[in-house]
Design goal:
The protein has 338 residues and is of the alpha/beta class. Helices cover 39% and strands 17% of the residues. It has twelve helices and 13 strands. Strands 1-5-6-7-10-11-12-13 form an eight-stranded parallel sheet. Helix 10 links the parallel strand 12 and strand 13. Helix 3 runs parallel beside helix 4 and helix 4 runs parallel beside helix 5. The chain is globular, with a radius of gyration of 19 Å. The two termini are 15 Å apart.
Length: 338
């Protein structure tokens, strides 16, 4: 079966010293300390070690071939969003990262498509860069689950979502800068507990804030199977029903009505959970996502879907059909149809 992975991350192999360029710290740089391996550093603080599959398209294609993944959707590593930075600096960095991804897509159009990043701390600049992303061949953008003190229902962000709908751009929401991380110093809990909560925060903000209601054609996908949202929709709906004075202040529509109106990736690491998602939102709203090339990802992309006890049509939909719809692309772009 054809496989299109909507959730993968990439970095350039090298980029300028951003602290020197912009005059202040907090940015990521790479230390290439040994062959085919580098440390991601935030100033002098170690963040993560990555291998050459994080920047080398040839290595990525070799690994994709092994897993029978025909197409990867490339997006930056969320720590590169830099929403905290000065807007013009974040725009400059976004343009650099987006040009890098667009270049790979141009060089290997049958194997990759791309999602850019935008400086959402300045919605006007973000709209400008979103437009440019589409002009250089990207399908949309990846954004964070919040933007500094703004949740995704912030009135300041609505013009950006409105522009995305008008332009037909895909929006992929990935958790970052996890809530409560200062209370979770051990056990990798920001990634295990904070990330799922962040994604639920993003979904609830767009539902309760009326963004989905006002922009019904907006195409949004959420990472990690929607995080904790699918497992707590009963609680969310109950809260909406019993405390409308607190929950229904910006949107009077039951949150359950929005199930099936946004997309989720398949990255849940559990067969019964993925089956539940197909029952909750439908296979036509679930797309293969692996979080390649990172440890929390699915190490054999698509295997969870392929091993499900569901019909072939639903598997095909999750492995490629939903991705094509979300990205607004035709299968013929990537494959010869006989």
């Amino acid at each position: 079966m054809l496989k299109i992975d909507i959730h993968t991350h990439i970095l350039p192999e090298n980029w300028p010293n951003l602290k020197e360029k912009y005059g202040y710290g907090g940015f990521i740089h790479l230390e290439h300390h040994k062959p085919c391996c580098a440390r991601m550093m935030m100033d002098d603080k170690f963040f993560r070690e990555v291998q050459n599959n994080c920047w080398d398209p040839q290595q990525r294609m070799k690994e994709c071939d092994k897993d029978k993944v025909q197409v990867q959707v490339l997006s930056t590593v969320p720590v590169m969003f830099s929403y905290w930075a000065k807007p013009m600096d974040a725009l400059d960095l976004s343009r650099f990262l987006n040009d890098h991804i667009a270049g790979i897509v141009k060089d290997y159009p049958k194997r990759f498509c791309g999602l850019g990043t935008v400086p959402l701390q300045s919605p006007d600049l973000a709209i400008r860069e979103l437009e440019r992303c589409l002009e250089i061949g990207l399908s949309g953008v990846q954004i964070g689950s919040h933007v500094n003190d703004w949740n995704l229902d912030a009135p300041e962000l609505f013009p950006f979502f409105q522009a995305a709908e008008e332009l037909g751009a895909a929006i992929f929401v990935h958790p970052w800068d996890m809530m409560g991380k200062e209370k979770m110093p051990k056990y990798w809990l920001p990634w295990l507990v904070g990330m799922p909560a962040e994604t639920s925060l993003a979904i609830c903000s767009l539902i309760f804030g009326g963004v989905f209601e006002r922009l019904p054609q907006l195409r949004v996908a959420f990472a990690h199977g929607g995080g904790s949202f699918p497992m707590t929709i009963g609680r969310i709906e109950h809260g909406f029903n019993v405390r409308p004075d607190l929950c229904a202040v910006d949107n009077s529509i039951n949150p359950r009505e929005y199930l099936g109106k946004f997309y989720l990736d398949s990255l849940v690491h559990d067969a019964s959970t993925l089956l539940y998602l197909t029952e909750l939102v439908g296979a036509d709203r679930i797309a293969l996502g692996s979080d390649y090339p990172f440890p929390l990802g699915e190490h054999n992309p698509g295997q969870l879907i392929e091993n499900m006890s569901i019909d072939k049509e639903k598997k095909e939909r999750m492995l490629s059909g939903t991705a094509l719809e979300f990205l607004n692309l035709k299968k013929e772009i990537f494959f010869e149809i006989h």
